[in-house]
Amino acid sequence: MELIAELANGFMELFKAGADTFAGWVIGIIPLIVVLMTAVSAVIKLIGEERVQRLAQKATTNIITRYTILPILSVLFLGNPMCYSFGRFVEEKHKPAFYDATVSFLHPVTGLFPHANGGELFVYMGIAAGVTALGYPLGSLAVRYFLVGIIVILIRGFVTEKIYAAMKAREQ
């Protein structure tokens, strides 16, 4: 009988811990994300959607900007999953590599810009909790994630573009 009571109490404690975490997000990270989304939308409106689109179009002209600047802009301005819509500026042969670069940047960006991908925020916050428990600052972790993310998306974009070109050549 006591075992059943202990299991029931443990079960309820699990949900209480989940509720505490959720309450922390409601007063912490959720307002932050809403404010960041509003700020990014305001910046786009101030710059002008047409100008943002022209900049994106120009970013597709060389391989380095195609797999760094364009994915970064798309993730920061549109977030997940809308960021993939910037693929419309990319030639058909570059779309798989653009997608690969963009999807690969959705985690590294969350430390500095959590509005970009709420789904990845859970992963980042778990890592961040461990880092802060060790007494290290989160700012340097977020910047390192971001910078390494840029290097990774450039490499992935380049490699995926080459793989796609090789596979396409075999088809013909």
UniProtKB/TrEMBL annotation:
Entry keyword Membrane: yes
Q: Which residues cross the membrane?
A: 22-47, 68-90, 145-165
Top-rank taxon of the source lineage equals Bacteria
A Pfam family reported for this protein in Swiss-Prot or TrEMBL: EII-GUT
Keywords for this entry? Membrane, Transmembrane, Transmembrane helix
Q: Which GO terms describe its biological process?
A: phosphoenolpyruvate-dependent sugar phosphotransferase system
One GO cellular component term noted in the UniProt record for this chain: membrane
- Which protein are we looking at? PTS system, glucitol/sorbitol-specific, IIC subunit
Which organism does this record belong to?
A: Pelosinus fermentans B4
Q: What is the lineage of its organism?
A: Bacteria, Bacillati, Bacillota, Negativicutes, Selenomonadales
